[in-house]
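Record 1 of the preview.
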Amino acid sequence: SCRREKETRHQRSLGTPEVAHPPFHSPPIPRHSPKTMARYPPLALAAIIASAASFGSDAFTARPSFGAPRSSAALRMSSYPTTASDILWTPSIKSGARDEQIGPITNYCEDLYSVVRRKTRTVECGPIKFGSEHPIVRQTMATTSTADVEGTIEQVMRCADKGFDLVRVTVQGKREANACAKIREGLFQKGYDIPLCADMHFQPVIAQLVADAVEKIRINPGNFADGRKDFEEKVYESEDDYAKEREYLMEAMLPLVEKCKSLNRAMRIGTNHGSLSSRVLSFYGDTPRGMVESAIEFADICRSQDYHNFVFSMKASNPLVMVQSYRLLAAEQYRLGWDYPLHLGVTEAGEGEDGRMKSAVGIGTLLADGLGDTVRVSLTEDPEFEYEPCNALADMAASRLATNPDAAARQAAVKTYVDTRDITAFDRRHGALPEPKEGDKVDVSGFLHKDGAVISAVTPDMLTKENIPYLYAGLGCKTAVGMPFKDVATSDSIFMREVPPTEDTDARTALRRLAEVSVGLIVPAEELEKDPLPNAVALMDLEEAIEKEGKLPVGAIRLAVTVHGTEDEDTILKIKDLAPSMILLKTDPSVSNLHSSRRLFEILKKENIDTAVIHHFTTDTDDSNLLALEMGTRVGALLTDGDGDGVLVEQTGSKTPFSLDFIRKTSFSLLQGCRMRNTKTEFVSCPSCGRTLFDLQETTAKIQESTGHLPGVTVAVMGCIVNGPGEMADADFGYVGTLPGKIDLYYGKEVVRKSVPEAEAVDSLVDLIKEYGMWKDKETEEEEEEAAVAAA
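->
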């Protein structure tokens, strides 16, 4: 099949051995190993389903062993624990017992100085395998109603044809579990052996039923055993009180573990930041540690039954929380001697470039450390559109592995350093803003921004007389009577490789006006020496600046230095004496960008050098989606470490396919995705599934149109009660489908308006934002001009 050819190609790129597959026949139905498929052959299962349909009964009552789960006593082996008190639970982290008994956390990845995949066991899921000895598995989730058997079959087939290795379907109850059996058989009949994963919430018994029909079960520790999602604060007098409640976890989980083990089904223990149980929230708080400990409890139950065919996930809509959670889980696995694979994803990432950017920041960061064995990019789009970003991120990861000779050479070329990052806590490095000096004619403090700066690359053609108004607009300036003024998302500085000649009065006037409103003008020193530009920031390579002892060209008022990541430590230390306003970090292609950048930040930290560092990213792509993925992976991986004070994106090559405005907005999206600087409304929107109770894409677009001008406000758009209120953890306001045609509106995690008719819900959401004092009207052009004049 196409999928198998693709898998073999990925294996070769990863340097892993090819995995032999059973022969593929269509028709007749593909043969599968009895270890990985249902206990009944596909044709027998088809006959059972057909018989059930003819008698008007469901697929489960047609066959006793396919219906209500067998008695746990019939499956349980006496050698395995049967109660929570019998289990050897992982030692407590809160009491310090884990540190005392096992030792402290040491590492979270295979190698801090090169990209090596974390070594894992192999988890079987029908014809595919998860783990470090296998290619990264690409997966998605169906958006059809699972009860719509034919519609789901068609969508899964499209996903398989696109290249996905696995598709998840939602299972709310017995009707959907019945449907899964028919979907599975229908796919077999059409020659598709792509595995299915049942997405389970609240329904332990249904999970046992559907395990007969699908190859994998996803459970959410936050609601699988609790039965409902609440935010009731519980008070535990001691850790023993907390541990006592493990009994009901055991009762809910044990039968499913036994079923999955007997059928060799795979399982994902999938913790979500926003849907931690009230029990875990009360004890650990809304934290990465709580996510990890929640998953470990469920893993302990699996391990107590000698069941190991499972993977973990630690999803969050906030990429920083997501990255920290996965790293912490990986570190705990190293400490505990566990080797279970990781499923990576940023939940509710959204759509378009923003959704791809957030996914790249989270997923790309982890893949760059060698973490991750399967990937899903969750977009508020049809599932087929998730394949390109999912595949691109996996391919980028493969290209950076040390098994790739070129990548290995770049990583080995990075000079020696000691990585001291603490993955158990997040701490952002804050570079110093340029400080005013006596005699300054412009406000240099605005050349950068405390929450992260955006510097825009400007070319000479943008400074022609007819293009100057478009330049101001592209930089995000407000204008009044032709004069530019800074707004909330205006570029902080501009970077020019060439300056217009002095006699070009229109261009020089435009630059002067930008400088007067605190836009920095960064120009290579050699250009300024040819033709001085008043109030400019002179840019030099670090070695050049050292040689010139930081002497500025005529007209320049500040120094900026470029660092390439190849400098020795003594050279870098001279930054302290030069005292530049900023460092542009533009790593040399001969060294690993990730590791050479980390080395620079380690040196700056050790020597208490607080100069702001701007990531200078160059690109020649003409694909906007790929640009978002590259920026998120290359720059975002460093910003999620807390390292960096902004970004400069420069298009290279003969063509510049993206407008100044697009690059600026994409740069601000990167900063917002890394939780640095908010310049627009943050939307947390689920990717849609069979539970969704309204047209998610259309509704999200309407909400964005009405509320997209509110920087600092976060709005969650959730298709059903499973994803909301829980998984909109960071949102100020929530729009959640509850019944067909009815919407509940939330403020934080509290429902404040119930059963609002869908036709009125967007307007009601706007009213709610106004009620809580977080609304401002969109400014008209006239109002913008008046505001700009007042600011002047």
